[in-house]
Amino acid sequence: MPEARTAGRPVTTDALRRLNTARVLRSLRDEGPASRALVAQRTGLAKATVGTIVAHLQRSGAVEDAPAVPVARTSGRPAASGRPGRPVTLAGAGIVGLGVEVNVGYLTATALDLAGRTVLSRRVSTESGHELESLRALTSQCWAQLVQQGADVVGVDIAVPGLVARDRGMVVAAPNLHWTDVDLVHEIESALPQPGSGRCRVRVDNDANCSAMAEATQGVARGVDHVLFLTGTVGLGAGFVVQGRVQRGGSGFAGEVGHLPIGGADRRCACGRRGCWETTVGLPAMLRAAGVRRRDAGPHPMADPMAAATEVAQRARTDASVRAGVREVGRWLGTGVVTIAGLLDPAMVVLGGYFVPLGPLLVPVVERALRGGLLGDGDRRCVVALSTLGLGAASTGAASEVLTDVFDGVVALR
Amino acid sequence: MPEARTAGRPVTTDALRRLNTARVLRSLRDEGPASRALVAQRTGLAKATVGTIVAHLQRSGAVEDAPAVPVARTSGRPAASGRPGRPVTLAGAGIVGLGVEVNVGYLTATALDLAGRTVLSRRVSTESGHELESLRALTSQCWAQLVQQGADVVGVDIAVPGLVARDRGMVVAAPNLHWTDVDLVHEIESALPQPGSGRCRVRVDNDANCSAMAEATQGVARGVDHVLFLTGTVGLGAGFVVQGRVQRGGSGFAGEVGHLPIGGADRRCACGRRGCWETTVGLPAMLRAAGVRRRDAGPHPMADPMAAATEVAQRARTDASVRAGVREVGRWLGTGVVTIAGLLDPAMVVLGGYFVPLGPLLVPVVERALRGGLLGDGDRRCVVALSTLGLGAASTGAASEVLTDVFDGVVALR
DNA sequence: TTGACTTCGTTCACGACTCGTACGAACATG
DNA sequence: CATGTTCGTACGAGTCGTGAACGAAGTCAA
Fold first, then answer.
1. Can you give the pTM of this predicted structure?
2. Is B264 in the A-facing interface, judged by CB distances under 8 Å?
């Protein structure tokens, strides 16, 4: 569709302001609070321009005057002489993004402000078959609460474990929730009170993408430019974040990694084919390799992968054969990571989900695979890390994703 | 480096003009010639704005009045009544991009105008060890010729078979040319006459990236949104183009596909490791599988992969065992394509290099692998095609890459 | 305490841009 | 030849970023 290339709003003068406003916000986020003069220096904008932009932002509640304690100037400078600048910081709770994560047994909602602070955090459990109702209720409740607190809710992002068509706002398939072709954006929008929904954009995303975003903005990968996130549950999920933006490839490739032809072909995958990666590194494969029977791995190993993996880690402490099994899975994990990393070239790989409890055993194996498997190990160092965010990471990432629009100048502030 | 996020020129009013100018150019390129009024309708810009922009473009030589024969209106409309519009077309040779391709025995230079027409095409052979001299000479000659013809050379792109650090303008390693850490941009810039080089940007790129670009803009993949290009020589090269833009992933991943851990691990790769994909689908592997001895595959099979592959194709016509060998390689090719396609989700895979002469044998095998290996075959149709561009594709793509800057509004026209 | 010095934030005139309206130009139809 | 319709441009209005100028708010030295 060639029209897509021409598409997008025509660039008017107010787009200018949006873009430069976003520029100022990014400077404040990435390089810390600063006086107007310093922001001007950092962004290359004229002092006068920064002045008007900051004034606007103050009225919007996006920034506020920093606490009395002045921030140190750019390091190593001679002591300040002259009129001291009044530092400006990203504001407390004026502008927020709301993220909601759908899971098999529960929902998590998180709201972040521009400074990345958690403004709201809530979790509710759901009954099977009633996820959509609960989701609508939770979202509108959170939205109402935030608005009541005086926040400007820029958007809502819903993280779903499944195949998502973000551009159409549809969940194509979420097997664990038994969802197929759900018009989720419409569902949520209709649940929100009318007045706000005009400005407040509702979107859908894959949960692995969101978790990746969370790692890159709030987790171990904060400050890393190219982050690959890989999460293990019954299947596998992946997300790739470059400079704070989720890479969606062609039409949103993430989450598909589980069915890449990596590893042995002896097991049949749930998708009907053989040789899928997740048949060798998914949770069932791990339990099998570790010699742990399902009923020994907690009451509902597939519903609670973390508990199951913790049980495996426990046994591995005393049983060498369990350790060997885990390492064997780790080698296949490593092969896949090398493949993906070779293609995407991340600076850091973050392992999440059930890999975390088994991290001490898995990480060295994956690291070794990377050392042996990547070219030019001089420049292309790729660090392996474990997720530290735990439950609710996806909702945090979803909220972060919403704020991306603000920092990119896609949306205008009130 | 957080500063990268803040970087980029501050957005002034003339950036506005650049962006809208680019918008008009894209409309003319993607949706064909049109009157000012129609362009206004297509871009969403005001008629007056389009008028001034077109006037500017005319003075720059970027567009010109279309031939007398008026273009049919948007199809199906009632017959035109009212003053007929004067259609505008992308101009003949006012604005051009120059692409130069470095190969083992020869150089190719191609210049394209905004309409995608070839304005200049030249090929010279080189002596081993003197490639850089020849490259400097050819580039400056072509540049001078274009300038003399009155063209505005927007930029020069050099396609190199090797690892390239595009942002630093360096060739990190080009084994076939025995180049290591060559500051190619500097080399070329110093060879160009001074006056122009201020505006005329010189850049370096990987040749597979450029070929991919060529396929997406001029080849079989024209009009396809997500294109994966895969070329076979002694090693392998790949490029991924989304909506006319080369995807460089983290720090420029393309070209690395040859060393992904795909296929058997029985052969040792030139990089010193085992299990690299190119040990199973590179040209040597193909010759081996087809049972063709090197000295039977043309005088210099590795220097002329196309001739060698043609020889193999010839033999396959009569010899069933050769056909079987080719198909065997094809299956490994298919496995890799499925892996990459599963991750990147292209709408079309274009095979180039030595795969082309063997296309009739290879394509069905790869197609079958894709049918069996990709999820959700309903939506995610992925077509396999053969490159038709032949020699010099990379230089064409390099020239295309230069023009990207114009269509993106990154550079201003004179 | 006072005056010189330095830096910060704002004000103002200016140029560049896009937009909407208005108007003349160019063609078809009856 | 009058009418209707559409095209392209001219003009005033509104917005935005910029540089210079200026008052404000500190430090430092005498």
1. 0.90
2. no
